[in-house]
Structures are given as structure tokens and as C-alpha cells.
Specification:
Elements (H helix, E strand, L loop, with lengths): L1 E3 L2 E6 L4 E15 L4 E7 L4 E5 L2 E5 L3 H15 L5 E6 L4 H6 L7 E5 L3 H10 L12 E4 L3 H7 L5 E7 L13 H10 E10 L7 H15 L3 E8 L7 E9 L19 H8 L20
Parallel strand pairs: 7-8, 7-10, 8-9, 10-11
Antiparallel strand pairs: 1-2, 2-3, 3-4, 4-5, 5-6, 11-13, 12-13
Helix pairs in contact: 5-6
Length: 289
């Protein structure tokens, strides 16, 4: 991260590119045992949350990520009741989960309580559901939590993690995903944020499909959608399904959504030609989405 006069910049040196926002003030900074948290006020993108120099969210475009992390997964399940969110300390994904009336229990497990407390202070629109009686917030290691969680105790598991480095790297491997499979009922849905299709197809998305297959998720699919403030502006989330197929999702109509719809769900499941079968490696070449 560089802060040059009144600009925040996140460079991606390996790709020779940077994303920059004009900032007007720094509102908060804090070093925790796990990471370095910063919050800025920007001139045009609302407030900006940064962790370890990387953009986590902006007030202007976070709805794109949070809606697509939650609603495709919950729409793919026929009747989601119990939902687990691993990570997601800013609580934006949790807020979207709570829009579904069928949900009776939502557990969020994030290792760093400081992220949630910063979100409550600086992004209260994201944390408005934290006092919902359906919600349990746990501040502990998600990997350890899953090892101890009862089998077949959740319908949907959402892995809303940071990039697969440091303490988050374990959330992308087959051992962790096998624990996710164990705690899922059948039918069940896992969704994992899976980085940029343009920049991370071979380093993240393809290995993630392999890890999901090794963990026992025969049906898998990667959805893609825009997030302008993330590297390349193009992001993805990958589904692992038990007893379900990606195309068999319900039409879900919810108030106040700004991006997600059944039409956008279908569009997100449609792979660009250059991705070939990467998004659905269980399908033969030339197969449909």
C-alpha cells in the first residue's frame, strides 16, 4: 500500500497495475495479532476498509461482492435454515444472509474481532443485523471451529475469506474443505470466494476445484461478477454442492437488492469462452453451463 498525498493505492506488482482512490482522511488504524486494519474516508467511493494494504471493501461497490457471496448459494439450496459464515468480519455477507426468511440460524466465525468492531463503528449499514436473534458471532479460528462442529449441522457454508495467504491459506485446501463437507447436510451448499478469473485462474480457481473434488464435492461451479475495487475489477465465487446441481436454483426476489437477480445468477454461471471448462471442470468440453 502507498498513500501519496491524498491518494490510497494498492499496487499489484506482479501484474504491473494498481488501484487508487482519492482519500480525504484516515479514520482508523489498528494492528492486531493477525493483521493491520485501516479505514479511510474517500472523495467518491465512501469509506474504505483496508487490511494488510489490500482493499477489503468500499462504501460504493461492496454490495456487488456481498450479494453474490450470499444469494446464489442460498437460492441454490431448496430451503436454507442453518448458515455458517467463515470469515466475513465486516458482516456484509451476514447481512445478506439474513434477508432470507427461511434462515433460522446464522453463525459467523472470524478470527479477528477487531474487524467486526471497526465495521460496527465505520460501516454500520453492514452490521445492522448483528443483533438479530438468529445471529451468533464467534471470534476464533474458523479451521479449528469446523474441526469441532457437529456433523450435518448446516445447510449452507459461506467462506468469505481474505486472499489465500497467511492465516487464510488453510481455508482453500482439501483438509479444510473436507471438514466443511462433514458439517454440511445433504442437500448442502458451500461457496468460497475465489479471486479474479483474469488473474488467478491457474493459481486459485483451478486448484480450488481440485481441492473441492478431493473433499467430495462432485458438483462444482464458479460464478463470476464485477467488483471494481478488487484486482482486475472482476471477481468470482466457487460453489461446491451436495445432492444439488448449480443450474437448479430457485428464483428469489428480495427487497433492496442492487445487483443480484435470477437473471444475474444465470449470467454469473455462464463462463467466458477463454475460461473453457475451468468454471465447470466436471463437464466435458462443449457442455452447457
Amino acid at each position: 500500500m502507498t498513500l501519496d498525498t491524498d491518494w490510497f493505492s494498492e499496487p499489484l506488482a506482479s501484474e504491473g497495475v494498481a488501484f487508487s482512490l482519492r482519500v480525504t482522511s484516515k479514520l482508523h488504524e489498528e494492528r492486531t495479532p493477525w493483521q493491520y486494519i485501516e479505514v479511510y474516508e474517500t472523495a467518491h467511493w465512501g469509506r474504505l476498509l483496508v487490511i494488510d494494504g489490500c482493499v477489503m471493501l468500499t462504501g460504493r461497490d461492496n454490495f456487488l461482492y456481498h450479494e453474490m457471496m450470499a444469494h446464489p448459494a442460498l437460492a441454490t439450496h431448496p430451503a436454507p435454515r442453518d448458515v455458517l459464515v467463515i470469515g466475513g468480519g465486516d458482516c456484509g455477507t451476514l447481512r445478506e444472509v439474513l434477508r432470507h426468511e427461511s434462515v433460522t440460524r446464522a453463525v459467523q466465525v472470524d478470527i479477528d474481532e477487531a474487524v467486526t468492531r471497526a465495521a460496527e463503528r465505520f460501516f454500520p449499514e453492514l452490521t445492522a443485523g448483528n443483533d438479530d436473534p438468529r445471529v451468533t458471532l464467534r471470534f476464533e479460528d474458523g479451521v479449528a471451529y469446523l474441526r469441532q462442529a457437529p456433523a450435518a449441522s448446516f445447510d449452507v457454508v459461506i467462506i468469505d475469506s481474505t486472499d489465500p495467504v497467511g492465516h487464510a491459506a488453510g481455508l482453500f485446501g482439501a483438509p479444510f474443505l473436507s471438514d466443511v463437507r462433514r458439517v454440511l447436510r445433504s442437500p448442502g451448499v458451500l461457496v468460497q470466494q475465489s479471486e479474479s478469473p483474469l488473474l488467478h485462474a491457474e493459481s486459485v480457481i483451478r486448484p480450488l476445484h481440485g481441492a473441492l473434488a478431493e473433499a467430495g464435492f462432485a458438483a462444482r461451479a464458479t460464478l463470476h461478477f464485477p467488483v471494481p475495487s478488487y484486482p482486475s475489477g472482476w471477481w468470482s465465487a466457487t460453489l461446491g454442492l451436495l445432492g444439488l446441481e448449480p443450474e437448479a436454483y430457485r428464483t428469489v426476489t428480495l427487497p433492496e437488492l442492487r445487483y443480484y437477480s435470477a437473471a444475474m445468477h444465470q449470467a454469473a454461471l455462464t463462463p467466458p469462452a477463454f475460461c473453457g471448462t475451468l468454471f465447470r471442470p466436471d463437464r466435458p468440453a462443449g457442455g452447457g453451463t
